[in-house]
Amino acid sequence: MKYARYIFQNNIYYGIVTGNEISELNGDPFEGYTLTSKTVAVSEVKLLSPTLPNKILAIGLNYRSHLGKVSELGHRDEPSVPEPFLKAPTSVINPGESIVLPKNSTKVQEEGEMVVVIKEQCKNVSRHEAKDYILGYTCGNDVSDRNWQANDLQWWRAKSSDTFAPMGPFIETDIDSGNVMLRARVNGEVIQESSTSYLIHDVSSIIEHISSVITLEPGDAIFTGTPGSPVDIHAGDTVEVEIDGIGVLSNPVVSE
Ligand code: MG
């Protein structure tokens, strides 16, 4: 099943997407809902980030193809456990909205990622139970300034500047998170392409690790890591992140 969050006639709704049509819900996928009889074409709505997370965790260094591929960060060993960091919820933007390069930024890159959306509050979840707490998956872009990432003591602005977490367009509940194709394109050129079967730490292990110390809540988002070699993005570019079965998240890039 595919969930959308959207604006139609000045109201915000969740809906279920079938083909090019959205069926409006009364309620939402976290608290529960009933299906209404109202439908609208996807083209008639403004799509929003399909979740507004209270917190965003993101896993660093989770594809072998990415290790050592960011020259500013140097050599990195494969981590023996998932390596989460936090992104500010204020960095989230909707599909189609602009990634804004902060005025003092110097080397911003895209990171196409599969994002897990949490369905229910959970703590101390074993990897065997992890799937019970997942609503589904969406596309995310873990936008990163490499010079800030390399030279600041913390990654607060490298990863959490406003607009540095595009998410969407939909939450798909039924993909195989361990074997789906992920792509990132800049101006139509494929920059990153990998199956999620190459994740070093899979989704269940990530949830076990995070929830051993942090309570996960409905709507929380976990970016699962990026493959390959991201590139610099500049004002005027368009970045797309696509996951088979979910859709395409597209965002233009502008300067502050
Ligand atoms: Mg990342």
Write the layout of secondary structure elements.
Blueprint: E1 2-8, E2 11-18, E3 21-28, E4 32-41, E5 46-48, E6 56-60, E7 83-87, E8 92-93, E9 99-101, E10 108-109, E11 112-118, E12 134-141, E13 144-145, H1 146-151, H2 156-160, E14 165-172, E15 181-186, E16 189-195, H3 203-211, E17 221-223, E18 238-243, E19 247-255
Parallel strand pairs: 6-17, 8-14, 9-19
Antiparallel strand pairs: 1-2, 1-5, 1-14, 2-3, 3-4, 6-7, 10-13, 11-12, 11-17, 12-14, 15-16, 15-18, 18-19
Bound molecules: magnesium ion (MG).
Magnesium ion is lined by residues 58, 111, 113, 142, 223, 225-226.
Question: In words, what does this structure look like?
Answer:
There is one protein chain. By secondary structure, this protein is mainly β. It folds into two domains: 2-46, FAH (SH3 type barrels), CATH 2.30.30; 49-255, Fumarylacetoacetase-like, C-terminal domain (Fumarylacetoacetate hydrolase, domain 2, Alpha-Beta Complex), CATH 3.90.850. The protein has three helices and 19 strands. It has helices at 146-151, 156-160, 203-211; strands spanning 2-8, 11-18, 21-28, 32-41, 46-48, 56-60, 83-87, 92-93, 99-101, 108-109, 112-118, 134-141, 144-145, 165-172, 181-186, 189-195, 221-223, 238-243, 247-255. The strands form three sheets. Strands 1, 2, 3, 4, 5, 6, 7, 8, 11, 12, 14 and 17 form a twelve-stranded mixed beta sheet that branches. Strands 9-19-18-15-16 form a five-stranded mixed beta sheet, with no helix packed on it. Strands 10-13 form a two-stranded antiparallel sheet. It is globular, with a radius of gyration of 17 Å. The model has no long low-confidence stretch (mean pLDDT 97). The structure holds magnesium ion.
